[in-house]
Amino acid sequence: MNLRNKANRIRLFSFSTPQMRAFHFSWFAFHLCFFGWFGIAPLMAVVRDDLGLTKTQIGNTIIASVAITVIVRLAIGVLCDRIGPRLAYTWLLCLGAIPVMSIGFADSFESFLMARLAIGAIGASFVITQYHTSVMFAPNVVGTANATSAGWGNLGGGTTQILMPLIFSGLLMLGVSETLGWRLAMVVPGVVMFIAGLCYYRFTQDAPDGNFKDLRARGELPEASGEGSMSSTFGAAARDIRVWALFVVYAACFGVELTINNIAAIYFFDNFDLTLATAGMIAGLFGLMNLFARTMGGVFSDLFARNAGLKGRVRWLFIAMLCEGVALMFFSQMHVLALAIGLMLVFSLFVQMAEGATFGVVPFINRRALGAVAGIVGAGGNAGAVAAGFLFRSESISYQQGLFYLGAAVILASLCALLVRFSPEVEAEEAAAYEQAASGETRGALSLR
């Protein structure tokens, strides 16, 4: 949707405008959700011993942690179109905190599996983050805004790998047993998520000029019924082949990142004979690349758009995906720790730049159904993680073999990026909007496409 008064600059140290408050609250909320979502991953070696889990059972919990997110992401994008990102994020944070804290009651494989399944719903936070920044920022910076907010959110996958073992170790120093320690450690992200939900409601708004409810009351935004209903917007997105091409692309970049977040600590722990804390620190480096890598993907998307329009955004997406697949295949073959860490960082750079490049394209597919498009594409990331999870639950396939096969699949998926095309009219319209935003003329009539 083309809302008025979108920001054409990102002022990182500003909290005075609704655009920048939405930017900072959305990435921080996503960061916390990521922390809660994967908080148990770096402690899996302890959980495995406590609950007596097999490799297959661990693989099943990995699949469960990302499977439910596919469904929730599909729904949450359309929900954003209807009630706005402010309320959607508030409810997700507050309700999502409950299973995060409740996982500590698990005393068997079955109860642990159900807890990870429930926690997976908070992964839908990504869609709200991308939706909120998309409606707040103009075309000349929307790729950078989307990539940075998502990247700093994904950074939670790195900080949890580092902080959760430290929280666990701190509890042990207080005399808590390992069995109780991992359970108490998960209370921390749950409490912080709940508080963040209340703050999101208090300090943000849906759009530059106000909340969706108020905009509709003033006649500045169509009602969330009839032509703009949930079913019609989702249907419009689902009928577009480009949306499903991006679904596959995102499955092969964000889906891979989710998989690595789930297995990295235990992979380094088992294959390089490291301590749990050291393995967690190394695994955390993968997620910490989000500090700048995903932003770079969005920045390059905006730069390619300056010179080649929407075609440039698509070309950059293909390049990033291809490099990701090649880097992953090389990483899978490393048996020396230093080389494995180096290749992991190169792979991490490209996987996260590919994610930023993907959502540098998403806002231009269908403005009328922005939430539905973002939801479907975002769900692709989790669908990819579910598919990859089956590689790592098999007792007959090693982690190295699974990573190699995954790299080959990414290379094939990169070809789907080339299916994303735009009509000459849309290309011209978006080129004009880019130039207008770049020149500072961001005001315009509210319209839907």
From TrEMBL:
InterPro entries: MFS (IPR011701), MFS_dom (IPR020846), MFS_trans_sf (IPR036259), NO3_transporter (IPR044772). It is found in: Membrane. GO terms for cellular component: membrane. The keyword Lyase does not apply. The chain crosses the membrane at residues 21-46, 58-80, 87-106, 152-174, 180-203, 243-268, 274-293, 314-331, 337-362, 369-391, 403-420. Keywords: Membrane, Nitrate assimilation, Transmembrane, Transmembrane helix. One of its GO terms (molecular function) is nitrate transmembrane transporter activity. Residues 22-425 form the Major facilitator superfamily (MFS) profile domain. GO terms for biological process: nitrate assimilation. It is a multi-pass membrane protein. Belongs to the major facilitator superfamily. Nitrate/nitrite porter (TC 2.A.1.8) family. This is MFS transporter. It comes from Halomonas sp. RT37.
